[in-house]
Design brief:
This protein has 393 residues and is of the alpha/beta class. The protein is built from 16 helices and twelve strands. The protein has two domains: 201 residues, Rossmann fold; 184 residues, N-(1-d-carboxylethyl)-l-norvaline Dehydrogenase, domain 2 (Orthogonal Bundle), CATH 1.10.1040.
Amino acid sequence: MSAPRCLIAGAGRVAGGFVAPLLSAAGWETLLICRNREVRDAINAGGGLWLRVTGAPDRWVGRVRAISPEDPELLAAAAGADLFATSVGPSSLAAAGRMLAPLLGERLEESSAPANVITFENHRRAPELLTLGLLEAHPQLAGEIGVRLGIGGAAVWRAVSRRAVAEDGIRFEADAVEECYVDAASLVPGVPPLDGSIPGLSPVRAFDDRIIEKLWIFNAGHAAAAYLGWHAGCRTLHEAMSRPGIRAAVSEIVAEARRAFEAYLEIYCRPVPVPSRPPGWILDRYTDPALADPVVRVAREPRRKLAADDRLIGPAIACRAAGIEPSALATAAAAALSYADPSDPQAVNLQRELELLGPAEVLSTVSTLAPQDELARLICRSYHERAAEEAAL
């Protein structure tokens, strides 16, 4: 009997540093749809990848192959797949949906068994963005979604700092956290992953609570450390968190985000979805020297991270609703707004908009905060203070 197969759109850090190892350990084959020929060749040369988890020796992950989206064999591979997934980044989900649409159509035509798609994107609207692309390319799939085709999100707690092609293949570096929750309410029951065939993917019904917790508590501090570190001239998160001033600021941001999450649970009468994670556990994950996590990786795409439902503005809005002044989160948002790394196209474009329109107008577009909103004023005040400090240097 052949091993079950998962077809993943994307061969980035999360796909290679978390999903493929998880599937391999469960006896699955992983087929990564990858446009980068160098990465494909590195994976296919050995039929797998190397994973370095902090505190453990390098580990070979087998039963992994890569395929080009233009490969004529892809359609046949999709027809025999037991599970589908994405790991492309939120901004590429619609394109991934258009690419996956004919593959999913073929799979549902060739087999009477339902299929699920998991979006490993750590984004609240990831399934929606993917679905838009799917239906644009294959409108007939609309009748299958929720019946024979499930599309659900995933909240991945592992941090994967890098992917690199080396002489002996492709290597990924990650921390040791293996926690991952999937949206059971949006997936078709009785088939992977809801059949229990992949230990490590924990199905939950109140998935939105889990993804909000991940974004607001872990990702808010993660992003803040990167933005504050970049402004201080740091190259890695470990270097940034080694500075007492930045560590203290990030600690305050995590505490504020935690209060926002607790307020959210209380307002919506939710049970606490997971055991409370000590603040020290969160901060220690940012400081792991073995990861050598570059600040530019964590800080990339500031426009997306300043969205109203994302990691900085989302908890700040929740704080305001609960009567808490989000001064620390506002400082982090201002640091994100003024992030200007020249290698990040989104950051470069954001700086152009700031020059033309000013921070209040940009926030109204990026974060949907009205200029007269008190949160917008807090962020703008911090933005101008930072600009004045940097101009005085």
